[in-house]
Amino acid sequence: MKLKLPLSYYLNQDVIFLAKDLLGKVLFTEIDGDVTAGIIVETEAYFGVLDKASHAYGGRRTSRTETLYHPGGVSYVYLCYGIHHLFNIVSSVEDEPHAVLVRAVEPLIGSDIMELRRNMPASRPAISSGPGSAAKALGIDRSFNKKDLTEHEIWIEDHGIRYAADSIVAGPRIGVAYAEEDALLPWRFYVKGNKYVSKPRS
Description:
Helix content is 13%, strand content 30%. It has helices spanning 7-10, 15-21, 111-118, 131-137; strands at residues 3-4, 26-31, 34-47, 75-80, 84-91, 98-109, 154-158, 168-171, 188-191.
């Protein structure tokens, strides 16, 4: 089974469910005719205006965060530390700015292209481990912000890959110490034992 996820999938208002359910889904990009894809093996959920770790916390709306207020099914890409592009999946309904950050993918299609983009062999976990590396391996940059995830530049497919509940680890998100008590929420999800998951991992 290979099925592009429909718009209705992204309109789900339960972002915690989506962050877990996206594990095993396959993220694709097509750039200048080059198709690359990776199995999503690590995510983080961001719970909109109530989440101190979210860019939309407190209803913050800026030119950067406006994409988060779009109905689900678009990409939110931003530059972190002026270096790394991070790819997020906007979910839920209009004006409810939930999102799922894709933190790691396992190379599946177009590994040779990923190797060129990252200047390392696909066998090395670092090629797509961590959100900046995953985005770079797939060729995702700021130009991918606000792209429709049901179109042909960037999309997600269901290939029937499923993980047992005891194979999915939930823990605190990474790099959000500023979020105070919300930094401790167990909203980072990853596939146990997968070498492409970023550190720390159990």
